[in-house]
Specification:
With about 220 residues, this protein is of the alpha/beta class. It is about 40% helix and about 15% strand. The protein contains 7 helices and 8 strands; from the N terminus they run H-E-H-E-E-E-H-H-H-E-H-E-H-E-E. The chain has a 6-stranded mixed sheet, with helices on both faces. A two-stranded antiparallel ribbon has the order 2-3. The longest helix is centred in the first third of the chain and has 17 residues. The N terminus is likely disordered.
């Protein structure tokens, strides 16, 4: 029995290390030009509130060293927010900035080739360290909800490999409600925090504990 358990743990660690970004469910954010290590939207007055919402309750994500298969401790597994008060261009800039900051893209922009390899290696190592408390600087998976039948079906089966930020850009109200309700219903199964940010939303989902983040369009 001990040998079987050890083999099972080994397979579990290999699965974690081999997991890939789910491109069927999420579209990766567009990158900034080479060498640009900060997104202009990070200077927007609404940035701190948006960034804080994303991180609040996302940790510590720890399990006992002796129980790698146990449920991790996570303050808030799933949260929904909508951006209001700004034009769609500002909302999109803020959501792109949050994605690129959270997924480590901006950090990678500041590195040379060897440094990028080190960052990628450290991210994979941290994924496999189930006893380690997650840090605000840890890389997340970030992407945009794909508004196609195939994309929404893939999202309904989505299992996070690490903390994940999803952006729903202009998703029709019914589709947004379905996505949010589906994620909320499955949150107990998540071993990592998941955040859903709705932008360009005409109607927010009813029956969900959603946060409204009010931001202003920058003055000309």
């Amino acid at each position: 029995m001990p040998r079987v358990k050890a083999l099972g743990r080994g397979r579990g660690r290999r699965a974690v290390l081999s997991a890939r970004f789910d491109i069927a469910a999420l579209r990766p954010p567009a990158a900034l030009p080479a060498g640009q290590v900060r997104h202009p939207a990070q200077d927007h007055p609404g940035w701190p509130a948006l960034h804080r919402w994303c991180l609040d309750g996302a940790g510590p994500g720890t399990r006992s060293f002796w129980s790698p298969a146990s449920a991790p401790t996570i303050g808030l597994r799933f949260a929904v927010a909508t951006l209001v008060g700004a034009d769609i261009a500002t909302q999109r800039a803020l959501s792109q900035a949050l994605c690129l900051e959270r997924d480590g893209s901006l950090q990678m922009q500041a590195c040379h080739t060897w440094g990028r390899l080190q960052v990628r290696g450290a991210t994979k190592l941290h994924d496999a360290m189930w006893w380690r408390a997650r840090q605000p600087t840890d890389a997340w998976d970030c992407g945009y909800v794909i508004d196609t039948p195939g994309g929404l079906q893939a999202l309904a089966r989505f299992v996070p490999r690490r903390a994940t930020l999803m952006v729903a850009d202009g998703l029709p109200p019914q589709a947004l409600a379905t996505v949010a309700a589906g994620l909320q219903a499955r949150q107990a199964q998540f071993t990592h925090a998941v955040r859903l940010l709705a932008i360009g939303a005409r109607t927010m989902t009813e029956g969900l504990a959603a946060t409204t983040i009010t931001v202003a369009t920058p003055a000309c």
